[in-house]
Amino acid sequence: MRIAQVEPFQAIAISRIAHDLAEAGRSVIHMEFGQPSTSAPAAAIAEAHRVLDREAMGYWESNALKERIARHYADRHGVAVDREQVILTCGASPAFVLALSCLFVPGARVALARPGYVAYRNTLKALYLEPVELACGEAERFQVTAAALAAMTPAPEGLIVASPANPTGTIIPPDELAAIAQVCRERGIRVISDEIYHGLGFGRPPGSMLEHLPDAFVVNSFSKYYSMPGWRLGWLVVPPEAIDAARARMGNLFLTPPVIAQRAGLAAFDCGDELEGHRETYARNRALMLAALPALGLRRVAPPDGAFYLYADVGHLTDDSLAFCTQLLRDTGVCTAPGIDFDPIDGHRFVRFSFAVSTEEVREAIARMVPWFAARREQGGGPAGNAGD
Ligand SMILES: Cc1ncc(COP(=O)(O)O)c(C=O)c1O
Hints:
The protein is α/β, with parallel strands linked by helices. The chain is built from 12 helices and 12 strands. Helix 7 links the parallel strand 5 (158-162) and strand 6. Helix 4 (92-103) crosses helix 8.
């Protein structure tokens, strides 16, 4: 029997070194993980306290939360979503499992951008689906294009898109999103749209795939904009004909999300001011990082339209992003994610900086990195130092 090969996250290995260094007394700045460093909104925490004291917390689904999420699509995107189309999940990660297993049989080919979020590839493989990675570079803003999809022979059965994307933060413009939807409609390609970074845009807000393709499966979560990654709450919007299949899978595989998270999540929907404050912090941090690029000697970066990432080409300094990030961490205490996590082919020359930390930490990280990058340039780049030293 052949067991699916699922690779580990290299950023976790680097983060472990960072924690060891911190335990040994070193000052470490965590820019490796894609998670807010802020806690859940104050009203969500207050609601959680109330629930802890008063509720038994059994298996339960909040209709009020489903309704609130459905209303969000009407308010933000002008799209009608029925409450029953919203499946509450334990974050975006299980939402993918539900969507993929509702849509595809083993062996189905699912297209996705490379670079992309590592779990797409690995979840596909774990479900015995075939990831078909489309190389997406600067010219495509690191995103799948309608033209690339139209050119695929044979057409894939599925497509995963993410806008804003991880690791790049790039957004698919509305006309391109519409064109992708059109190709998928014409070629019978089923779409899973990861909209987890919605709310975290630095210009025009991204559109939802539901505006163009009512039968798209849309994944979202409280982990990013709502600053609640550890609460494990997210959702999947499915078309009406897939409600029963998706509900059956959720019930069998995961039961329900935690009651406390559902109650707190509903409260978080009314915390716009606090959450907007986080977005403003990210906008400041992004501006600082962009302003520091010349001093860092980094010229080629993905346009960070949204999310909280900067994906930079460090190919003039290394051909081994894992060793490079490890050395940067050991020398400066700044922890980053190697591109190989997101792109097994070209990621050896990229680094992802997550700026979802405080503005002071971003300033400090830049101050530490500028002389380090200058020294690397003087050494003439090349392979990074021994990751083990
Ligand atoms: C693009 C993307 N999708 C999904 C996830 C998983 O999110 P969740 O915590 O909701 O499972 C992440 C987490 O980093 C992500 O970056």
